UniProtKB/TrEMBL annotation:
It is a multi-pass membrane protein. InterPro entries: EamA_dom, EmrE-like, Small_drug/metabolite_transptr. GO terms for biological process: lipid A biosynthetic process; lipopolysaccharide biosynthetic process. The chain crosses the membrane at residues 6-22, 34-53, 59-79. One of its GO terms (molecular function) is transmembrane transporter activity. This is EamA family transporter. Residues 7-102 form the EamA domain.
Length: 103
């Protein structure tokens, strides 16, 4: 099976889980968003384990590091957080560091 399908599943599920959990916890955690975030976390974990079954670890971890950058962008757009240049550079450095460590 194509490993990029699992990469997309990990990235999409992780980003959705984090956004739902962050937004739900702002509202006190009693609404439907926090439980739904656990479903996305389970989907992310399943996708990652399946990705490890079809691809090397050196491919799997850097490919899923894209979620860090995407989460930072969506934190600004969806959650209306104050994302400044320093936070963007930090997310980029984390993603670059994960990529460099894998090679």
């Amino acid at each position: 099976m194509n490993p990029w399908i699992f990469v997309a599943g990990v990235v999409f599920s992780t980003v959705c889980a984090d956004l739902l959990q962050s937004h739900g916890m702002r509202r006190g955690g009693a609404n439907w968003k926090v439980p739904l975030s656990f479903v996305f976390l389970a989907t992310s974990f399943f996708s990652f384990t399946q990705l490890l079954a079809v691809a090397d670890l050196s491919f799997s971890v850097p490919a899923t590091a894209a979620s860090i950058v995407l989460e930072t962008i969506l934190a600004k757009l969806v959650l209306k957080e104050n994302v400044d240049l320093r936070r963007c550079l930090g997310a980029g450095l984390v993603a670059a560091g994960v990529f460099l460590l894998s090679h």
